Amino acid sequence: RTAPFPSSKPINPTSYHKIRGYTWHEFQKFVDAGRGNKINGISELKKYFHRFGYLKIDSLNFTDLFDEHLEHALIKYQENLGLLVNGKLDEYTVSQIISPRCGVSDSAPKLFMHATRN
Amino acid sequence: YAFFTGKPRWSRSIPITLTYAFSPDYVINSLSMSEIKDAFQRAFNHWASVIPVSFWESNDYGFADIKIGFYKGDHGDGEPFDGLLGVLAHAFSPEIGRFHLDAAETWAVDFEREKSDVAIDLESVATHEIGHLLGLAHTSVQEAVMYPSLKPREKKVDLKIDDIKGIQALYGSNPNFSYQDLLESDTSTNSG
Q1: Of A116, B48, B88, B99, which cross-links B68 as Cys (Cβ 3.0–4.6 Å)?
Q2: pLDDT tens for residues B27-53?
């Protein structure tokens, strides 16, 4: 059912990638990072996955280590968004992560329902 | 396609009529109000053409079913906006009817006129968020309107079969809609 390779190509590097200052653009530096790497700022990527429903984690684990939590979240993200599932921050996956998106969570969609209850 | 937990939908009797209004206080100036209203009307019509739900614009923001506003940063619902790109908008599940857009984006209704590399198509985002307002969650089908991301200068307003199957599972079909028309329009688009 899913194409072996993602049908969407990474964004043309000559387009908005060059613009600094837009949200999540700093995630570009994580391309090809893998489990076990300690990278300054990757805790922000963990917060990104936590926000959109891929990482149930308490704040103690927002470290800058590419750990199994992050790898697990990455695999779920790749599965859920029809990307090549390899648990790696490959170019396609990073291009998708930094793409602008809707603020509603991907896999715990009751967030706004919960808000309703409040 | 996917639904919110509990499969919420607008529970009025079919055919459903929903009103929408724009916040008089939380607006943007980069587009005229008539351009914004036209884009939203097209967006609502994409959904109205496939389900027995009609949408009417109202001037009475307080009583509208769907309340639309452009906000910056923290705007009180626990989901602050984040400036240029990143999160573009969010909308609540039925029957809440809240629809928030990030006022910091470079909203566009015509890419011939708006040349910015980070311009975001307003009709595409509106069509996606209206899907949430009606009860659809995100899909993993990349071509579908309910796929969570939209790249700058990308336009994605035509509902795909995944979107239509999902929304018709909630509301049934618009009697005037037929998949045949959809396939023919797709074919003509492709051959074009």
Answers
A1: B99
A2: 999 999 999 999 999 999 999 999 999
Q: Which amino acids of B are annotated catalytic? A: 129
**What one-character DSSP code corresponds to residue A65?**
B
Distance from CA of B116 to the nearest CA of A (A): 9
DSSP state of A28: G
As given in the structure block, the two tokens for residue A59 are: 């704040």
SS3 B22: strand
Contact between A100 and B88 using a beta-carbon 8 Å cutoff: yes
In the 8-state DSSP scheme, what is residue B63? G
Q: Are the C-beta atoms of residues A48 and A76 closer than 8 Å to each other?
A: no
CA distance B125 to chain A (A): 8
Q: Per-residue pLDDT averaged across A11-36, rounded? A: 77
Q: Tell which residue, B69, B72, B70, has the closest CA to residue B80.
A: B72
What is the C-alpha to C-alpha distance for residues B22 and B97, in angstroms, rounded to an integer? 12
Check residue B76 and give left, alpha or beta (phi > 0: left; psi -120 to 50: alpha).
left
Q: Which tokens is B15 given?
A: 């055919």
Cα B88 from Cα A16, distance rounded (Å): 15
For the CA atoms of B73, B132, B109, B57, the dihedral, rounded to the nearest 10 degrees, stands at -100
Report yes or no: A93 at the B interface, CB cutoff 8 Å: no
Q: Which helix (H) or strand (E) holds B94?
A: none
Chain B residues with CB inside 8 Å of A11's CB? 151
